[in-house]
Amino acid sequence: xxxxxxxxxxxxxxxxxxxxxxxxxxxxxxxxxxxxxxxxxxxxxxxxxxxxxxxxxxxxxxxxxxxxxxxxxxxxxxxxxxxxxxxxxxxxxxxxxxxxxxxxxxxxxxxxxxxxxxxxxxxxxxxxxxxxxxxxxxxxxxxxxxxxxxxxxxxxxxxxxxxxxxxxxxxxxx
Length: 174
Description:
Layout: H1 19-38, H2 43-47, H3 58-76, H4 94-97, H5 103-126, E1 133-136, E2 139-142, H6 143-169
Antiparallel strand pairs: 1-2
Helix pairs in contact: 1-6, 3-5, 3-6
């Protein structure tokens, strides 16, 4: 899974200048890394759980990160009053629990994740500054903090993805 630096899709050759560009670029790189960790796997492999009793899987991570993107950029920063993704009163971990080895579930997870990432990118691009705020459930949130949190969220879960992928087929990589 090691990618030659000249072929690495995360390397754009464009120098990031400024705080917003830096945060956006780190997030872009982590998003691409998640895709790379899942590349070439079938539904069963993507849904394979780590170690009991954990429900963590690569597919669960894709669904979870779609939910996180949706929550922060639609529900919180976008102040949209819409239902949560992959969540119910009966199953608050539906993102992981519903990650089953079904090609339809896999296709839906990727389509949802890509839709939510595209929305987040559009939202951030249109924001007047990193100081943009939104109020959600009585709390005020600042875009800068949300972006830093998203980088942290992806960094943690890409680490999980690295270990999950290695357990599936031994592949490791940057």
